[in-house]
Amino acid sequence: MKKNAIISVVSKQSDREDDGESIEVVTPGKFYKENNCYYAVYEETEISGMKGTTTTLKIDEEKFTLIRTGTTNTEMKFKKYVRDLTLYNTPHGALDLTVDTKELKMDVDNNGGDVFIDYDMIIGNQQILSTTLKINIKA
Length: 139
Hints:
Elements: E1 3-14, E2 22-34, E3 37-43, E4 53-59, E5 64-70, E6 74-78, E7 83-90, E8 93-109, E9 112-123, E10 128-138
Antiparallel strand pairs: 1-2, 1-10, 2-3, 3-4, 4-5, 5-6, 7-8, 8-9, 9-10
């Protein structure tokens, strides 16, 4: 059964020159369990620059997947010590995106919970962006 939820996503990116700033999005969404996976689903807004996109957070036993469909399309997979290459489709074109997961902590149950991801992101052959995602789901 899908429950109403409040989903908070705090993202921080930094490179070698810049420590970066945190960006926090707090949004209503849905939370449910299906086939031993938890899902949190929400609609992106103009603030995120992805209005018209639905974001699905899939929380598995050992893997976290961020799925976006709509104006932006991607499926980013996070598994500790695993590097994943994906295509990030935006209204402005497609980008090769490499995600190298350093840390993945998930503490989620039927009432929601927390996910922490520390990863390096490489867009095309550009410089590495060290990124952290802190996700909190209250159902």
